[in-house]
Model the fold of this input.
Amino acid sequence: MTSIAVRNVAVTRVLRLVCRHDADDDQERAMDLHRPHDYEVYCGLDVGKSDHHACALDPAGRKIHDKALANDEAALRAVFTKLLTRGRVLAVVDQPAAIGALAIAVARDMGIDIAYLPGLTMRRLADLQPGQAKTDARDAYVIADAARSHPHTLRRVGTDDETLADLGVLAGYDDDLAQQATRLTNRLRDALTHVHPALERLLSKHMDRGGVLDLLAAAGTPTALATLGEHGIADLLRPRSPRLARTLPALIITTLTQQSVTIAGTAAFSRVITGVAAQLREVRDERAALAVELEARLEAHPLAEVLTSMPGVGVRTAIKILTIIGDGSAFTSAAHLASYAGLAPVTRRSGSSIRGESHSQRGHHALKSALFLSAFAALGDPASRAYYDRKRAQGKLHNAALICLARRRIDVLFAMLRDRQPYRPQTSASSAEVAVAA
Done:
């Protein structure tokens, strides 16, 4: 095989990866932008913390700008103003948040359309370009050329709606707090297991109670707890966990008597336990206060009532959906949304030996997780439970049946967002029709 033929085969394979129309790649096409000839300038921005690199192409692919610029408003406005003299501009970034936020805000303020090229797609498209160098200038060119030649690979950048922007920022902070709480809880349980395994088994069921954290922040060793006695333990538990204060102190004292030896390092672990318990208490208190603010901000969004009317969709799930897909207008159908979330089945066929479908490993993992957990929470709803039970009766395992339910619920969610209508429970007649369809 000649070198030209080898290159043609490589290019064909990469194009198939980038441009194929299988369902599991629809998430790379979440933005339905104008066709290439609708713009006179395609500007690719390889964004950085202190500096960006801008490369602009005309519809024929000729470079009309290729320079680095500072990450500040004046520099961005100067470049965009120059490009606007040639006509309509489409600006594309490789990171829409943090280091790319200022570029997006300036472009929007100047009336420039903005889009986002996912990193994986950019790397695949970069393989089509000659050479293997990795530079800011080359990346900016790849981004601009993708906007010109492969507009279907671009994604929509979230709107500049103030309420939605605030929800996105605070929801990200809430996710950080949740991860921090999980880390601190695991560390606290590990420390308790080291000094007194039986005590850890007793308290691990109540780690989310404020009174238990108050107790461990004040007394971090079995000896300190025994010194407090039942009354002292109850006094520490009562302010924030009054019900536990009536039953848990006696159980703690009884559990402490099950171990007579003191494990080496217990004194040092006392410092760890009290410190971690105090940190975990602060994180949980901050997250509880944040939840109130998140709920208040969500209520100000016009789609809040629509989303939360659906069984299994609470405040945090509704915020996750809003911050990821917005009003759903970027998706042409429920199948498109399901593919973007990674909940659409993937068909595998090759000749006569490979035929079947499997679950997609791609998609937007945060959205997929939110929809999956929402489906699990909705099992108390009669319609959702009936659909889940039918899938289990067909031989599907628990997780597979939940994924099927999450996929079916996307049809409902998409219709709710499209029509701006709240969830309406199915009647017995419509439930029978769904049963036949399933």
Notes: The chain has three domains: 31-156, 167-295, 304-437.
